[in-house]
Amino acid sequence: MSMKNFDRLLGTWNVTGGAEGTVTYRWLPGEQFLVQDIDLTQYGQAVTGIEVIGRLKPFGAEEPSEHVHSRYYDSEGNTFDYLYEIEGDTLVIWAGEVGSPAHYRGTFNAGGDTVSGAWTYPGGGGYASTMTRTAS
Asked: How far out from the chain centre does Cα 42 lie?
């Protein structure tokens, strides 16, 4: 999977469902890493942070990682690691590792300006979430 697949996420999105607010995706120079700026409310709490998304390539490594990794940082000092996949019109965000019981699975609409899906958590928890692009 090419990092160019992630062009579909570029822009500002209105998020509704279990978390509400906006997220903005933008490339860092060189287009090797995508940054997500996060400004949401979830369970009555403000959630602000950034997420850096891209392939891992430790210093001296010849090839980048197979999977697209991310690290999320929030204003409370929390960090979370995810793996991202975009295949066709499906976006999957795995918490920690591929196959994790905690993940998001969403589908882009035909116009590519809405992604609808749900976060699933172990034990049957989770919530529906929809992102609608408001600016490119």
From this structure: 16
Query: For tokens 């204003």, what's the residue?
Result: 75
Q: Is residue 44 a contact partner of residue 29, using CB atoms and an 8 Å limit?
A: no
Alpha helical stretches, state H, the chain: none
This model's pTM is above 0.70: yes
Cα 42 from Cα 91, distance rounded (Å): 21
Strands (E), 1-136: 11-17, 19-27, 33-42, 45-55, 68-74, 79-87, 90-95, 103-108, 114-120, 126-135
* pLDDT 10s digits, 78-111: 999 999 999 999 999 999 999 999 999 999 999 9
Q: Which two tokens stand for residue 66?
A: 């197979």
Residue reference for tokens 């918490």? 95
Tell me, rounded to whole angstroms, the distance of Cα 77 from its chain centroid: 19
Residue type present at position 70: S
